[in-house]
Design a protein that fits this description.
With about 290 residues, the protein is α/β, with parallel strands linked by helices. It has 13 helices and nine strands. It folds into two domains: about 160 residues, NAD(P)-binding Rossmann-like Domain (Rossmann fold, 3-Layer(aba) Sandwich), CATH 3.40.50; about 130 residues, N-(1-d-carboxylethyl)-l-norvaline Dehydrogenase, domain 2. It starts with a strand and ends with a helix. The structure holds nicotinamide-adenine-dinucleotide (NAD). Nicotinamide-adenine-dinucleotide (NAD) binds next to helix 4, strand 7, helix 6 and helix 11.
């Protein structure tokens, strides 16, 4: 039975913890919001340090690089107090350089750490079908893999530390652009009097097909579990998507690369966020497209 500490019990962390607990792992969970450990079904840790104390595996699933840095390196950060045999797995989506910085500090302390961001959303976390893109040493990857297999279906070693985050940012650039494109097409079809289900039936078997359409359709109806059917309750929040697009923008700038569609997607998500929709699911961008056309 693996002893696991889990920090960050939000939309993704809770179902990930539930799977670990159901598979027989002993999990201590911590979140700054009280009561989420009960919702996840794990033991309660009073602090991040308490969650990390005496475990063999430490997993973090936090909103952004700031929280990840604070938890590992900040005042009372857990890195310095971990046992040398602990494997650290950060599943948050953060900047490549932040992942590399924390990994280097962990390595200097003799600890194995991998960045292992995920794809598949809350539904994938609930079903245990996430894809993990894992950056770090081959040894770190092999140690993390059996734990990640409890929560995911595809566990892929992407290369050195930080490469998991690099792959994740590229994935989310594509996701944001395809969600906006899908939303534009759905709104145009609406205006042209085409039934949404009919469009879905055709495009899901045609070249316009995408995950944004077939697994996460931004219009209610065709995909019953998509956030569009629950007033865009996240899921994956607009604020999180905007964070990832800004990270992708920065990464593009660092390589002197022009990424015009990502820039445009970032502006649209920033606009949607400014209108007070940061906590809505990112597929709610379809509402902005509808409004822009009025
Ligand atoms: P969330 O905001 O629902 O959950 C994050 C949790 O971290 C919150 O419960 C928050 O209270 C907690 N937290 C913040 N600071 C903390 C601290 N210092 N100590 C302990 N807990 C702290 O976010 P989420 O949707 O679960 O996403 C988590 C990460 O996974 C993000 O980096 C996101 O980009 C990524 N991600 C999310 C999805 C998705 O569909 N939601 C999919 C793939 C990747």
């Amino acid at each position: 039975m693996s002893k696991i500490g889990f920090i960050g019990l939000g939309n993704m962390g809770r179902p990930m913890v539930s799977r670990l607990v159901k598979s027989g792992c002993s999990v201590k969970g911590f979140d700054i919001v009280e009561g989420l450990d009960q919702a996840a079904g794990c033991q309660t840790a009073a602090t991040a340090k308490d969650a990390a104390d005496g475990v063999k595996v430490l997993i973090t699933m936090l909103p952004s690089g700031k929280e990840v840095r604070d938890v590992y390196l900040g005042n009372g950060g857990v890195l310095a107090s971990l046992d040398a045999n602990v494997i650290i797995i950060d599943c948050s989506t953060i900047a490549v350089e932040t992942a590399c910085e924390i990994n280097a500090k962990a390595t200097a302390l003799g600890l194995d750490m991998v960045d292992a961001p995920v794809s598949g959303g809350v539904a994938g976390a609930e079903a245990g079908t996430l894809t993990f893109m894992v950056g770090g040493t081959r040894g770190g990857f092999e140690r993390a893999k059996p734990i990640l297999q409890i929560m995911g279906e595809n566990i892929i070693h992407t290369g050195v530390a930080g490469s998991g985050e690099a792959v994740k940012l590229c994935n989310n650039m594509m996701l944001a652009v395809s969600m906006i494109g899908t939303s534009e097409a759905l709104v145009l079809a609406e205006r042209l009097g085409v039934d949404c289900q009919t469009l879905f039936d055709v495009v899901s078997r045609s070249t316009g097909q995408s995950w944004a359409l077939t697994s996460y359709c931004p219009a209610p109806g065709p995909v019953p579990k998509s956030p569009a059917n629950k007033e865009f309750k996240p899921g994956f929040s607009t604020a999180m998507m905007l964070k990832d697009l800004r990270l992708a923008q920065r990464a593009g700038q660092s390589q002197f690369l022009s990424i015009p569609l990502t820039e445009a997607a970032c502006q649209l998500y920033a606009d949607f966020d400014r209108r007070g929709n940061g906590e809505l699911d990112f597929s709610g961008i379809i509402e902005l497209i509808r409004d822009m056309g009025r």
